[in-house]
Amino acid sequence: MAELPETPLLDELEKGPWPSFVTEIKQAAEHHEEARDLLGQLERSYRERIGHWKHGGIVGVLGYGGGVIGRYSDLPDDFPGVSHFHTLRVNQPAGWFYTSKALRDICDIWEEHGSGLTNMHGSTGDIVLLGTSTPELEPTFKKLTEKGFDLGGSGSDVRTPSCCVGPARCEWACYDTLGLTYDLTMSYQDELHRPMFPYKWKFKMSGCPNDCVAAIARSDLSIIGTWRDEIVKDDAEVRKYADNGLDIFNDVVLNCPAKCMKWDGEKLEIDDEYCRKCMHCINAMPKALAPGKDRGATILIGSKAPIVEGALLSSVLVPFWKPEEPYEDLKDLVEAIWDVWSEEGKNRERVGEFIQRVGMGNFLEAIGLDPEPEMVAFPRENPYVFYDLSEDEDEDE
Amino acid sequence: MAELPETPLLDELEKGPWPSFVTEIKQAAEHHEEARDLLGQLERSYRERIGHWKHGGIVGVLGYGGGVIGRYSDLPDDFPGVSHFHTLRVNQPAGWFYTSKALRDICDIWEEHGSGLTNMHGSTGDIVLLGTSTPELEPTFKKLTEKGFDLGGSGSDVRTPSCCVGPARCEWACYDTLGLTYDLTMSYQDELHRPMFPYKWKFKMSGCPNDCVAAIARSDLSIIGTWRDEIVKDDAEVRKYADNGLDIFNDVVLNCPAKCMKWDGEKLEIDDEYCRKCMHCINAMPKALAPGKDRGATILIGSKAPIVEGALLSSVLVPFWKPEEPYEDLKDLVEAIWDVWSEEGKNRERVGEFIQRVGMGNFLEAIGLDPEPEMVAFPRENPYVFYDLSEDEDEDE
Amino acid sequence: MAEKVKRVTDIGPPHHDKLMPPICKENYGTWKYHEVLKPGVMVHVGATGDKLYTVRAAGARLVSIYRLRQFADLADKYCDGYLRFTSRHNIEFLLTYDANIDPLIADLAAMGVSVGGIGAAITSIVHTQGWVHCHSAATDASGVVKAVMDVVHPYFNGEKKLPGKLRIALACCLNMCGAVHCSDIAILGIHRKAPRTDHTQVAKICEIPNVVSACPTAAIRPTQVDGTPSVEVIEEQCMYCANCFTVCPSMPLNDPENDGVSIWVGGKVSNARSEPMFSKLAIPYIPNNPPRWPEVTDVILKLVELWAANAKPFERMGEWINRITWPKFFKMAGIEFQKEHIDDFKHAGLTFKRSTQIVH
Amino acid sequence: MAEKVKRVTDIGPPHHDKLMPPICKENYGTWKYHEVLKPGVMVHVGATGDKLYTVRAAGARLVSIYRLRQFADLADKYCDGYLRFTSRHNIEFLLTYDANIDPLIADLAAMGVSVGGIGAAITSIVHTQGWVHCHSAATDASGVVKAVMDVVHPYFNGEKKLPGKLRIALACCLNMCGAVHCSDIAILGIHRKAPRTDHTQVAKICEIPNVVSACPTAAIRPTQVDGTPSVEVIEEQCMYCANCFTVCPSMPLNDPENDGVSIWVGGKVSNARSEPMFSKLAIPYIPNNPPRWPEVTDVILKLVELWAANAKPFERMGEWINRITWPKFFKMAGIEFQKEHIDDFKHAGLTFKRSTQIVH
Ligand code: SRM
Ligand code: SRM
Ligand code: SRM
Ligand code: SRM
Ligand code: SF4
Ligand code: SF4
Ligand code: SF4
Ligand code: SF4
Ligand code: SF4
Ligand code: SF4
Ligand code: SF4
Ligand code: SF4
């Protein structure tokens, strides 16, 4: 291999306590021309303060419409190692669990076929294999499937669903986030690999309202655990927290958004009838409090980044859902939504934008859900109501 | 006079403890044909569940473009007394103060020239003289001016400014609401009487953030008293409130939106640096607390009812203004706004809608005010920023 | 022109100084505090110890000059001739001698006028013209107001207690002259059928471009009917705001079968505790049922009682609902949640529930 | 077609059951509670008393396979071969034997990898590709992230304490792949010049109607240039979102002089206490200053310190600012408020201050 290029600017980023991506690239550059030329081109970007990638072309593996992001250098003569520098998105295991063996499998494949660089993980959640050339795509894919891995999504398809660690390691998981994630990923392999929608579709699963995968902010369907009975409370443990210095009144009671708690210095009272299941009191006292026993999830719809109509947070679609394998009710709902959105959605219109355009009431009618007050933060403030007189007449009969 | 018509439906509204407008109309009907036929037509409306007025025509007094609302019955043959039934809007005295003499002056004029019916007052604040015929308009106007009264606004003009009772009877008035109201009314007589704007313009003045004339909800320019130093506090009186049963912690401290108060059962502490001047603690303990001594007003702009673009609340334009006669700074501001809005506003576009259409930043530039963080509840959430590179270059120099 | 010169114009209203009791002038801007003495009666105390007693009497707002003269008489008898009206159309007698309070109240009672509305109470209803004077009205104003005030009267005169102030307002059409958009409880007259266009008249009386641009939902298009220019209303896009009618008399919407009122809750104006809030839709439609609108008075009384029983001290209707959440309010009030409750106008997306904070 | 049949496709990922440590399977869904033992180390306790220790190691996210193999070795050495990654790209070693904790941490330290990020701490920065892989980037991602994490490192490894969690995210362009729109502090790459249209290419490579409709502000119009169909950008209406570039490579915006980053604050995702919130604009523009973006790291450190010094326990950045109000925040942070801070997009009116509740 040729020597590493001079990178005085990037070298600055090897200093300091945080792990350095420059060190990582250099490590890979010892063995991979792609990584070496990436280093060179990146130094150039740092000097010129501009990226040196061309707008991606369409590349991929046979029969799949997504999963590979095509990328080409605009300085191919200077940096031939990155003249092609495509990325493969690979479905991560639910909860990002690995054995050392599985991890090594991936490393071995990528040592042979790519730059030796990865993102663990991409911000959708995939294993991102960073940079290879077109001829390497099929062989990489073949090796991946041999080891039990498959590609993720890109383009107007379902993206790899992702979830929080949930019941595997968290006492607050209100449903099986990993199980549902795996099930949806397997059920929608076709939709994942073969773009068929107006735009992308993301599923994210969090086990409780803490929402440790940021589902409410970045998934078209956000399934977030919750409960509907009383918080489980151990009074003795509450007192221990107080004894150990937790200021229960100021830091817990006053932070309750429902203002439904009382603390007299001895006993904590929670008026569960008004509790909003926000998690705060439980977060503050994990040994003393826990979500109730009647657990399930809230299903929310429509979050996304700003392009085109502005960023959205997901909003409530099903206030409380009891997840039960094989989740047929959820899949019926999802498919009803996909039908309507595929039929009526505009090109590059995410489902959240679609709902805003057609109106939530109309959308609910189209997918066959009844309006519920939990779907809105508050009822309309403007008097511009479309009255459906036919209904009134029905009632009169 | 003819007998009163049969009004079996309206008669029902003479029952019950609240003063009855039907009784009022009957009282007037004893002496006024207009009132008698109003009674008849109204009974008909009650029977048929529909109003019987035609879309108003343009009537008025000489040289004025507003102040009279033309109104004609659509049943003139049945109810000739209301075939014309125009209303005069009359500037109320600031704070709605009257001597018995002034009140009788108005009664006498309206006994001679109208239906004998009034609204004390209309919801903009005017004295509303309810119902007369076209030939009576000039004579009524003449008599009114003889007694020192003048017409209010209607159409695309300034409407009669109105204000809370303020310093005349309220300990919380942070500026002279009545003085400013009178001054603005007098300064803008021309704009009040001769429509010249894209649409109507309302001024409302409240002496403190309790906003007893609902200025923030229904005036294009809302001037609401406030202060910027410490709340004046009498600790002994605070303790008396506690002794007399006020739950200072729950009902005062916990209701403070700034969460800037402390109560240890003995002494109330207020961290004025964070106080939002909401008035709540003062309202709860008027003998113990009072607005600070550095008093003035916040100027807000743009509230209105829903037509066309949806209802608006006024929003902050000048966070803190020191009102000083003759209020030239305020008038300069108002006139700058009128210039821009008259020039660029669309027909029937209230100033609040206008600002939303052109953008607050552009509006501020046009009227020559600097942006201040108090003008927004929070800065923008979307990244769709129009960067003004010329400024940057200025800074670089 | 000669005529014009002689006429007195642009004189504005009389200066308030001439109409204000001397005690107000003397203590102008230096009042110290006030206390509520009993329902409808309060005292303001000045820096020098001066005391001004206010007796607030129920105002019907639509008053005859004969009634006004009675008030003037009472002012002369008890208040040196001074009185005022409030921003919500009540009458305030301004007394300096406290012994006059009870006789005044007795005289008012004899006239059928009660006192109240001060402090944590219901005061009179800000409202509009209705069938008494306006061409736009989808309901009457004064009649509904009278019927409602009759049922909530114990909350006006202090017979029954409340946690805080509660403001009711009524507007007889979407123009909302009663500014009902920020009231604890609002009653709003509504149409529910698209305008009936008189195609023979439109071009004659109205400016077609103005009519087209008046429509908030772009439901109006220029068209030709029998060779005459007119406008066409796309009925599915019309939400009956009547703004077209405001600019064009040939497009009336009034309709006895389908007009009625809607009920809105949770708005406020003051900046105390919480910021001002708009009212929100509670009940999309109640038919007009004159003379006493029993369905309306029932539901309002129920809402007042629900709030009174559940709110904390000082908590306004909207503050209470925000604390318990809207779904809980719908359940407690027994109101069915319908498609109409979901906003679908310009900023609708911002009303969607973007959180899992739900009271299950 | 024969080819296609032979290929294995649509198999999805390996099932997590095969990759999870036995203790996780045995206690699946029955964990009782957890405790933070020290910075970067926590224990989860199961119903039966089982204990699972987690050591969280700093993740650069852009990692080479050589580093991954080192992690695999450590997992073999201390964790029976089990490890996981977090939703914010850290590495979690899953131990059942507490005596292994300190040796593991020592080995990590020797590799230059610190542990931390658990509890009231700053954890790693969710971010994107930047100049490493994306054609759209207005700034680099990994470099800025490394520079920022270096300065806030004492808040990662527990040397310095914080009132609550603080999440930083970075996206290198308005596509916001880092989903920075709900972060306590967000760093967002921005362009500031309208696209440079290559008129000879547009019609060849792009679909003009798609290009026109891609623009959120309707700044793009179809046109003809030298007889070829192309598009015209009305520069005053362009806010540089690059959405046109996404659908049409002939409209690049990258520009070394004018690209840079903006800083946003006060967003959150969790439903704890307050509902999820969007981040808001704090600093409209900081030029790209590689390799270490000192202006960016300075301001972020300052914001973190300001919040740390003033927030109450548990109070996230946005919750703290909401309590003290935004104007106060601008004052305390010494940030000049400019026109850019005022929203002028679709729902702008709802961001105006519609109350007198002001901290003067
Ligand atoms: C690789 C990744 C960033 C990363 O470094 O982690 C990424 C990279 C790109 N994203 Fe993304 N997005 C990635 C996660 C996201 C996320 C976060 C998420 O999924 O949780 C978002 C925000 C959430 C959302 O979906 O709204 C996101 C919102 C976008 C958007 C804006 C979509 C919108 O509706 O607003 C675009 C633009 C587009 O689709 O044309 C985009 C487009 C792109 C493209 C394909 C560029 C383009 O214009 O076509 C980027 C390719 C970069 C490259 O060269 O590799 N990317 N993108 C992430 C995927 C890795 C993975 O599969 O795990
Ligand atoms: C008389 C009065 C109602 C009352 O009974 O008190 C009234 C009556 C009318 N208003 Fe009003 N408005 C009255 C106060 C208001 C208020 C309240 C206020 O001023 O505080 C508002 C809401 C605040 C605002 O200005 O937005 C109000 C908002 C409207 C609107 C909607 C304006 C908008 O921008 O949304 C219209 C429609 C229009 O202007 O075409 C309107 C139009 C009308 C018209 C002229 C009807 C029309 O379509 O042309 C009504 C004449 C009724 C009649 O026959 O007498 N009126 N109008 C009030 C004036 C009395 C007075 O001068 O004191
Ligand atoms: C007389 C009047 C002003 C005027 O110039 O006419 C007035 C007078 C007073 N108001 Fe008011 N307010 C008056 C309309 C209003 C309005 C406007 C409205 O209702 O349309 C508001 C805003 C209502 C809203 O928020 O929707 C208003 C919100 C307040 C508040 C804040 C209440 C709250 O907690 O939100 C206070 C403070 C309090 O009551 O503790 C207040 C307090 C007061 C005090 C105590 C001020 C004082 O120290 O003198 C006065 C008598 C108390 C009372 O009525 O309870 N006044 N007050 C108005 C009487 C109307 C009536 O006949 O009932
Ligand atoms: C490991 C991880 C889930 C995963 O599947 O990977 C995780 C794990 C835990 N989270 Fe989380 N959270 C994880 C990302 C998140 C995210 C997502 C994000 O940051 O993008 C959030 C939402 C952040 C936001 O609101 O912007 C998140 C918001 C929380 C909260 C709510 C904090 C708050 O007060 O707002 C808690 C409760 C707490 O900390 O008291 C929590 C609590 C926890 C607990 C204590 C749950 C438990 O009992 O096991 C876990 C360890 C504590 C810790 O890190 O402090 N976790 N947590 C993620 C670790 C990321 C990292 O490497 O640092
Ligand atoms: S979202 Fe809830 S269940 Fe999932 S890891 Fe976070 S705290 Fe645990
Ligand atoms: S979970 Fe949240 S809303 Fe429920 S009691 Fe605890 S702090 Fe209050
Ligand atoms: S607004 Fe303030 S100053 Fe005016 S009357 Fe009401 S409480 Fe007094
Ligand atoms: S005026 Fe309002 S914000 Fe200020 S201390 Fe009193 S209650 Fe708090
Ligand atoms: S609210 Fe409508 S109907 Fe009532 S007075 Fe105003 S314009 Fe007329
Ligand atoms: S009533 Fe309103 S929505 Fe209907 S056509 Fe007329 S202006 Fe348009
Ligand atoms: S945020 Fe923009 S520049 Fe960064 S990876 Fe995503 S699309 Fe590319
Ligand atoms: S950069 Fe955005 S705003 Fe500018 S022309 Fe392109 S799409 Fe429109």
Structure description:
The complex is a heterotetramer, with two copies of chain A (397 residues) and two copies of chain C (360 residues). The longest helix of chain A has 17 residues, at 328-344. Mean pLDDT of chain A is 96; it is low at 393-397. Chain A has helices at 8-12, 21-29, 33-48, 100-113, 137-146, 177-187, 189-193, 215-218, 235-243, 248-252, 280-284, 328-344, 351-358, 360-367, 389-396, and strands at 53-54, 68-69, 72-73, 86-90, 97-99, 117-120, 127-132, 162-163, 203-206, 221-227, 232-233, 261-263, 268-270, 289-290, 295-301, 315-321. Chain A is built from 15 helices and 16 strands. The relative contact order of chain A is 0.08. Chain A has a five-stranded mixed sheet with strand order 8-9-10-15-16. With 360 residues, chain C is α+β, with helices and mostly antiparallel strands. In chain C, helix 5 runs parallel beside helix 9 (294-310). Chain C is globular and about 75 Å long. The chains are: A alpha+beta (397), C alpha+beta (360). Chains in contact: A-B, A-C, A-D, B-C, B-D, C-D. At the A-B interface, loops of A face loops of B. One siroheme sits between chains B (69, 71, 87, 89, 119, 121-126, 128, 152, 200, 202, 218, 304-307, 350) and C (128-129, 133-134, 136, 175-177, 179, 246). The site of one iron/sulfur cluster has 15 residues of chain C, from helix 8.
